[in-house]
Amino acid sequence: MPLSPVYKEISIAVIKTACSNCNLRELCLPFGLSEEEMARLDELINVRKRIKRGEHLYRAGQSFESIYAIRSGFFKTDVLLEDGRDQVTGFQMAGELLGLDGISTEHHSCNAVALEDSEVCHIPFSRLENLSREIQALQHHFHKVMSREIVRDHGVMMLLGTMRAEERLAAFLLNLSQRFTARGFSHAEFNLRMTREEIGSYLGLKLETVSRAFSRFQEEGLIAVQQKHIRILDIPGLKQIMSHHNH
Amino acid sequence: MPLSPVYKEISIAVIKTACSNCNLRELCLPFGLSEEEMARLDELINVRKRIKRGEHLYRAGQSFESIYAIRSGFFKTDVLLEDGRDQVTGFQMAGELLGLDGISTEHHSCNAVALEDSEVCHIPFSRLENLSREIQALQHHFHKVMSREIVRDHGVMMLLGTMRAEERLAAFLLNLSQRFTARGFSHAEFNLRMTREEIGSYLGLKLETVSRAFSRFQEEGLIAVQQKHIRILDIPGLKQIMSHHNH
DNA sequence: GGACACGGTTGACATGGATCAACCCCCAAA
DNA sequence: TTTGGGGGTTGATCCATGTCAACCGTGTCC
Fold first, then answer.
1. Nucleic acid strand C within 7 Å of A227 CB
2. What distance separates the 2 farthest-apart alpha carbons in chain A?
3. Which of A127, A130, B100, B185 is the most buried (most CB within 10 A)?
4. Residues B178, B217 within the same domain
5. Is A135 near chain B, with CB under 8 Å?
6. Is B197 (CB) below 7 Å from strand C?
C-alpha cells in the first residue's frame, strides 16, 4: 500500500528534524552520542520553528521552558537595563544553543533576535534534564556546553576590560572567521549579519568607532570591506593587532 | 567503651565538613535537597582544604577534576592573555562555587587566588555528575548555579560595555553589599579584601580612577572610606548614580 | 625606633574614543 | 526616474579616563 501524500510529508519532516541527519550534530547537543542515544534525544525535539529576520525567538522576562538549538541562521542576544541602556551580549550561529541564561530564574534574562531568516529546534528543558539523567554522555556534554559559555563570557569581559577599539574589532573578526570555518564556510570571506551599531554594542564601542576601525584595517590592507561584505586578507596581521597592545 | 581521642577528632572533622551542618547550605550546592539527599552529597565531599591568603586554589592550564565550594574566605579569579594582560573576572565569597569554567576543556581556564585565609570543599566533578543523575533536585540546582554564572557574566559585560567609571564602582559596591547581606553580615559596613588595582582590573579601570571615584563618593556623602574599610551611607544615592547615565 | 615597601591618594597633562554633524551609498517603493 | 530612509563613512571637537609623577599612610622587619 503506497503512502498517502500527507503521511509522506510528515515523514519527510521528521527525517529533516532528526539530529542523526543534521549536519550540525558534531557541533551541537548530540555530540558524542551513539546512534541509539541520539534517537532518544530526537524524541524530545519534535518542534522546529522558523524565525524571520528581525523577529524575537524569546524576550527578557518571558518564562523559560526550552532551550533552542540553531539549525540555520544567525541570532543576537541582548540585555536591557531599566534606564534604557542595552547591550548585545552575543551573536549565535548554527549549532549553538540559545536560552541557557533562563535556567537560573526560570525566566529569560535577555532577548534573542534573528538577524536573518533562521530555524531553531525546540528542546524542552525539563525533558532534556530527564534524559540527561539517563544518558551520561548527554549530561556531560551539556555541562561542557554551559561551561564553554562561561569561558566565552570571560573572553568577552577580557576584551571589554582590557582591549582598545582596534584590538576588539580584530578579535571579533578573527572569532567570526574561526566560527565560520568550523561550519565549513570560507574563513576569509563572509557577510556580516549585524549592523555597525550592533557590533559596537557588543564590543562596547560606538558605531562611528567601529566604522573608523574598519576603514583603518582596510587602509592597512588587513581586510577588504564593502558594506556588510568582509574579506579577510591578513589573518596574522589581525592577530598581531589583537595582541600587540602597546600600539 | 569510651571513644579514643583519635576517633573523636576524626568524627568532629566529619561533622564540621557535613553539608547538613553547614550554615551555607541555603546558598550553596545542597540547596533544596532533603536530609537524605544531602547525606549522599556529603559522602562525596570528604576533602576540605585551607588556602592561605595569596595562595592559588588552582591555576589556568591545570587539569580539571573538582569544583570547589567556598566554606569561608574570599577569592578572586583572573585570566591571563598571552601578551601579559590580565583581568580579574570575579570575586567569590562563602557559599559560591569555583571551577565551573574548567568543565568545558577539562582544564582550568583561569586562576583562583585566595584574598584572605579561606576554606573550600572539594567536590570531585565526575562523582557530582554521577550523583546528579540520581538526584533530580541536585541536578536541577546545579544547572541553575551554572546558568546564574552566565547571567552574572552578562551583567559584568553590561557594566564594562555601557557604564562609566562611577557607575561601575557604584554597581560594584551595591553588589558586594547585597552579597554580604545575604550572608548575614552588615550590608552597610565591610572590609574590602581586594586592592584598588584588583577592583580596577575587574571593572576595566585603572587604580587611580577607582581611587578618585571612591574619593568623589566620599565627598558626596555616599560612603565613608578609610583604606579597605567601607561604610555605605546612602544606598539610594548609589543606585541613582548607577542608573542615571546622562550624568 | 627607623626604614622600607606596598598600597593608596592626588595633581597635571595626554589621548582614545564619544559626540555632533554633514554627507554618501544602496535599495526599495512610488 | 525620483524619492525617502536606513545604514555607513568621515571630519571637527570635546571629555572621561589613562598616564606619569609626586607624595602620603600604614604595617613590617631589622
1. yes
2. 75
3. B100
4. yes
5. no
6. yes
Q: Are A105 and A182 within one domain?
A: no
Instruction: Examine the fold and report which residue of B159, B181, B202 is the final residue of a domain before the chain moves on.
Output: B159
Here the CATH number for the domain that contains residue B123 is 2.60.120.10
Is the Cβ atom of A209 within 7 Å of strand C at any atom?
yes
Q: Measured in angstroms, what separates residue B225's CA from nucleotide C1's C1'?
A: 30
Rounded mean pLDDT of chain A? 91
B147 and B35 housed in the same domain: yes
Q: A42 with A85, same domain?
A: yes
- Chain A hits for B167, CB-CB cut-off 8 Å, are none
Q: pLDDT grade, residue A134 (50/70/90)?
A: very high
Q: Among B110, B130, B159, identify where a domain stops.
A: B159
Same domain for A168 and A239? yes
**What is the grid cell recorded at A42?**
530526537
Same domain, A17 and A90: yes
Q: Are residues A111 and A179 both part of a single domain?
A: no
Residues of A within 8 A of B139 (CB-CB) are 129, 132-133
- Look up residue B47 and give its three cell numbers: 576533602
Query: What is the mean pLDDT of the segment spanning A206-234?
Result: 95
Give the structural domain span for A77.
5-159
Q: What is the mean pLDDT of residues B107-122?
A: 96
pTM for the structure as a whole: 0.92
- Which residues of the protein have their beta carbon within 7 Å of strand D? A 192, 195-197, 207-208, 210-212, 214-215, 225, 227-228; B 164-166, 204-206, 208-209, 227, 247
**How many independent structural domains does chain A possess?**
2
Same domain, A133 and A198: no
Report pLDDT for A169.
Answer: 97
CA nearest to nucleotide D26 C1': residue? B227
pLDDT digits (tens, 9 = 90+) for B26-70: 889 999 999 999 999 999 998 889 999 999 999 999 999 999 999
Q: What string of DSSP letters covers chain A?
A: -PPPHHHHHHHHHHHHH-GGG-TTTTTSTTTT--HHHHHHHHHH---EEEE-TT-EEE-TTSBP-EEEEEEESEEEEEEE-TTS-EEEEEEEETT-EE-GGGTTTSB--SEEEESSSEEEEEEEHHHHHHHHHH-HHHHHHHHHHHHHHHHHHHHHHHHHHH--HHHHHHHHHHHHHHHHHHTTS-SSEEE--S-HHHHHHHHT--HHHHHHHHHHHHHTTSEEEETTEEEE--HHHHHHHHH----
